[in-house]
Amino acid sequence: MIRHIVCWKLAATDAATKAEHAAEITRQMDELPALIPEIRSLQVGTNVLFPEVNWDVVLVADFDDADALERYSVHPEHQRVGAYIGTVREDRVAVDFEV
Questions:
Q1: Whole-angstrom distance, CA of residue 20 vs CA of residue 49
Q2: Secondary structure class of 81 (helix, strand, coil)
Q3: Is residue 15 exposed (0-12), middle (13-18) or buried (19+ Cβ within 10 Å)?
């Protein structure tokens, strides 16, 4: 199994806009398991502590293998959500590891 972890630093500088963007990312990501069969589990979390140093949103998703992760990556629904995230993020970091 592959665990896919992605963190986003959002571009907004005011707390209200940042919270709105984080909520929209969460809403859109939460729709994906019903649309993309390769997703075994998916959790999205918004940072609650130390906003001055921590990243803003995290995704933790599990896939059967690297091929399943690749199919997820190119799926049109994932591409749609990624396009939105691209408009509100400042930076992205990811780690994929076996579990």
A1: 17
A2: helix
A3: exposed
Residues 6+ apart with CB under 8 A from 94: 4, 5, 6, 7
Residue entry with tokens 């986003």: 8
Q: Are 24 and 84 in contact (CB under 8 A)?
A: yes
Q: Which two tokens stand for residue 47?
A: 């940072």
Report the alpha-carbon distance of residue 69 to residue 96 in Å, rounded: 9
Question: What tens digit of pLDDT does each residue of 20-50 get?
Answer: 999 999 999 999 999 999 999 999 999 999 9
Characterize the bridge pairing of strands 2-10 and 57-63: antiparallel
d(CA 84, CA 76): 13
pTM of the model: 0.95
Q: How far is CA 23 from CA 4, 18, 19, 54, in A?
A: 20, 9, 6, 17
